[in-house]
What does this fold into?
Amino acid sequence: MNPPPGTEDTQWAGDARAAVGIAAGFPSLLVVVDTAAGFVTVLRASLWIGLGLVLLAVLWPTKVSAAPGLLTARGLVRRHHVHTDRLASVTWHNGIAQRLLLEDIDGNRAEVDPRVFVANPAAIRYLCVLMCWRISSASSCGCCSGIQWVASSSR
It folds into this structure.
C-alpha cells in the first residue's frame, strides 16, 4: 500500500503577503513623513529602503511541508529537512519564540513553529499516519484514530 500524500502549510502564503506588506509599507510611510517634513534625502530614503529589506528578512515565514518520510522547513535563504521515519529526538523550546526542534539519526535538524501544526492539523495527522504506515506497512495501525485534532483559538 502507498503512503499518504504530502501536505503543506496552508497559511504560509498569507503570512508571506503580510511580511511583504509590512516590509514595504513601513519604510514607505517613513519616506512620506520625511517628504512632508521636508527632510527627505537620497541617503535617508536609502536607509528606509534598507530597513524595509531587513524587516522582510526578519518577518519572512518558514514554509513547512511534509512528504513521505520527510519534513522540510524552507526559510528565506536555507532549507532544512528531517527524515520523519528516522527521528532521533523531538525537543520543545520555550521562550519568546516557541520552536519544535526535530532531529533525525543522520544529524539533520529542522526547527518548526508549533503554530504550524495547530493551524494545519493535516500535517501532524499526516506525520502520525506516516509513522504508523512505516511501522505496520499498512495505511494506519489505528493509533492516530483516538487523537482529537482541535486547533486552539488565539487570544
